[in-house]
Amino acid sequence: MRDVAIVAFAQSVHRRRTDELSEVDLLMPVLHEVLGATGLKANEIGFTCSGSADYLAGRAFSFTMALDGVGAHPPISESHVEMDGAWALYEAWVKIQTGEADTALVYSYGKSSPGRVRDVLTRQLDPYYLAPLWPDSVALAALQAQALIDAGDTDEGALAEIGARNRTAAVDNPYAQLTGDVPAGDHLVHPLRTGDCPPIGDGAAAVILAAGDTARALCERPAWIRGIDHRIEAHSLGVRDLTDSPSARLAAERAGAFDRPVDTAELHAPFTSQEVVLRKALGLGDDVRVNPSGGALAANPIMAAGLIRLGEAAARIHRGESDRALAHATSGPCLQQNLVAVLEGESAHA
After folding, report:
1. DSSP 8-state class, residue 62
2. DSSP annotation of 292
3. Which of 65, 148, 169, 244 is deepest in the core (most CB within 10 A)?
4. Residues 198-223: pLDDT tens digits?
5. Nearest to 293 by CA among 283, 279, 307, 282
6. With helix as H, strand as E and coil as C, how does 61-72 read?
7. Residue 250: pLDDT above 70?
8. What predicted TM-score, i.e. pTM, was given to this entire model?
């Protein structure tokens, strides 16, 4: 296995609406920033991979237009996943492992503002039994929250505290959309209140991966990917225990998260109830700082929020604020798909 690290991370300021910006306009400053952080030029990147969703854009193969932000020349080795950018990072990591590239640019973006996200996300449900009923993303998350309450794992007050803690942490995050003292609000779908749900917004993110000595040359303190894995639950919600996440636990185990304690965890938990599930599945105690960036409750650009969790964890390692961090990304209803990566600083590299 080759040693691969995240050597740079950049993201946009996440906003409720960016009507004046196209996807390319949203991406270009982020791509320029992440390349500038390493001094690399586009023709020095070995592989480029992106993550996005045509459903958000409302047109097929929308990612090909976003490639204008990377540049039409010189020709590049490029791929795309119809998923959160965290899965694009996984593909890029595999590409580097094969030896076909030493560096990779990974980016993702999402503009949620043009449509009604709660309806758009129903298109990822089981097309035969569930999607025809049009249960939206908040309603499904509410089912999970109620299951946790019925099991005695949490209550509405505890969920409100999770929301408050995340958004208080986000006060120091200049890219966050929703920060500070945000009211719990009224019930949106019982038992979830508006404060238990993520903001809707537009945003983009990018990271650069590099292998071995190349990573050390590009970054003073690379965030080494010690392990990364992703797993999936059954598509049908009716056969799953919504109070647990076996796929997240298995991904963490395969990534080596349980080998040694982590000091930081960036969890992709768009709903407060999902943090309860993930903390249990990943065995995170009170000694672990969870979502110091504010997490997805502070900014949730769909298709980029998972990659941002990896980027935020890596950035803390770059700054020397963390030695061993866990980063998590999810996709699908009620934590259906989960990716876990373990990142370490150079001082922890053995």
Report:
1. T
2. T
3. 148
4. 999 999 999 999 999 999 999 999 99
5. 307
6. CCHHHHHHHCCC
7. yes
8. 0.96
Write the DSSP symbol of residue 14.
P
Asked if residues 262 and 255 have their Cβ atoms less than 8 Å apart, the reply is: no
- Separation between Cα atoms, residue 74 and residue 318, nearest integer Å: 30
Q: How many CB atoms lie within 10 A of CB 320?
A: 12
Distance CA 167, CA 297 (A): 7
Residue 120's alpha-carbon distances to 136, 139, 248, 298, in angstroms, are 8, 13, 25, 21
Two structure tokens written together for 302: 């769909």
Which residue bears the tokens 């990716």? 339
Helix, strand, coil % over all residues of the chain, rounded to 5: 40, 20, 40
111 phi, psi to nearest 5 deg: -110, 100
User: Looking up tokens 């590239």, which residue turns up?
Assistant: 101
Q: What is the pLDDT of residues 30-71, one digit of tens each?
A: 999 999 999 999 889 999 999 998 888 777 778 888 888 888
**CA Rg value for the chain:** 19
Q: Judging by beta carbons within 10 Å of its beta carbon (0-12, 13-18, 19+), is residue 37 exposed, middle or buried?
A: middle
* Spatial contact of 302 and 117, defined as CB atoms under 8 Å apart: yes
Distances (CA, A) of 89 to 48, 193, 253: 10, 33, 19
Q: How many Cβ atoms are within 10 Å of 62's Cβ, its own excluded?
A: 18
| Phi then psi dihedrals of residue 341, to 5 deg | -130, 145
